Give the backbone structure.
Amino acid sequence: MLIKLFPIPLLIILAFPISAESRCTVRSCTALASYYVWSDSNLTFISQVLQSPLVPYSTVNFDPILAYNKQVANKDSVKAGSRINVPFPCDCIKGEFHAHEFNYSIRPRDTYDKIAREYYSNLTTVEWLQRFNSFPAANIPDTGTTVSVVVNCSCGDADISKEYGLFVTYPLRPGENLSSVLTQANLSSDLSGLVQRYNPGVNFSSGAGLVYIPGRVDFF
Ligand SMILES: *[C@@H]1O[C@H](CO)[C@@H](O)[C@H](O)[C@H]1NC(C)=O
Ligand SMILES: *[C@@H]1O[C@H](CO)[C@@H](O)[C@H](O)[C@H]1NC(C)=O
Ligand SMILES: *[C@@H]1O[C@H](CO)[C@@H](O)[C@H](O)[C@H]1NC(C)=O
Ligand SMILES: *[C@@H]1O[C@H](CO)[C@@H](O)[C@H](O)[C@H]1NC(C)=O
Ligand SMILES: *[C@@H]1O[C@H](CO)[C@@H](O)[C@H](O)[C@H]1NC(C)=O
Ligand SMILES: *[C@@H]1O[C@H](CO)[C@@H](O)[C@H](O)[C@H]1NC(C)=O
Ligand SMILES: *[C@@H]1O[C@H](CO)[C@@H](O)[C@H](O)[C@H]1NC(C)=O
């Protein structure tokens, strides 16, 4: 299967190191954020925290999100424990890495921990929030300010495949592994080698951290 998809050029490329630090060689692209739905979250909330030019905040029209989530049967009650793919612009930040900066409006008693692990469903981390915000972790102002939430993303790696462009930023959860991640993303297990190469050195069973997986199930 892989041989069919990637004839001779891939074999040549693989002879060279492919782990080059991810400088931005592609300016920007569309990416998807895999949002793990916690109980009491809903599409209104998701479209609020992940709003961008691709997903305007709305309490009624979720079409920009639903277009990537044919599996959602009822938009008014997304299943807790499922995942929703949310499109967002993947930009080149400071010429160094791909990400998008979301602005989150602080509400009373918010903490970095709550913002990262709950509101942004582990799409970012406390450490990564602290890199881009100067509020003291124990004392974020109560209201009237925004926190910059930087969510990493990928525009692919032309050294691995030139054909594939849309990637999901996927926060791993405890109990998952490469095979279960592919299954839940509806990707064939034939792609496990390719997906691992997109995430060099990553342990898919580690229970935490971000991985990048292909986002268009109909592509292959
Ligand atoms: C959506 O979720 C948010 C956050 O949990 C909650 O405050 C809001 O009431 C919910 N909206 C609906 C329509 O359920
Ligand atoms: C999974 O992929 C199959 C075949 O490509 C498709 O028919 C099915 O609707 C997909 N399921 C989901 C949940 O996307
Ligand atoms: C986020 O906030 C910053 C600083 O206030 C602003 O420069 C930027 O345009 C905002 N981004 C979006 C997407 O609203
Ligand atoms: C985020 O990760 C933490 C630590 O693994 C976990 O407790 C929490 O449930 C996760 N959040 C979501 C929304 O899955
Ligand atoms: C985002 O990417 C940068 C650069 O590769 C990395 O240093 C950082 O740890 C990543 N953040 C998260 C939350 O994975
Ligand atoms: C991967 O996880 C699935 C579901 O949790 C489990 O059934 C399977 O045995 C695991 N596979 C490996 C290789 O650990
Ligand atoms: C990957 O992480 C899991 C969970 O921490 C660990 O049990 C396993 O040994 C790790 N695998 C490798 C190859 O490091």
Summary: The two ends are 10 Å apart (CA to CA).
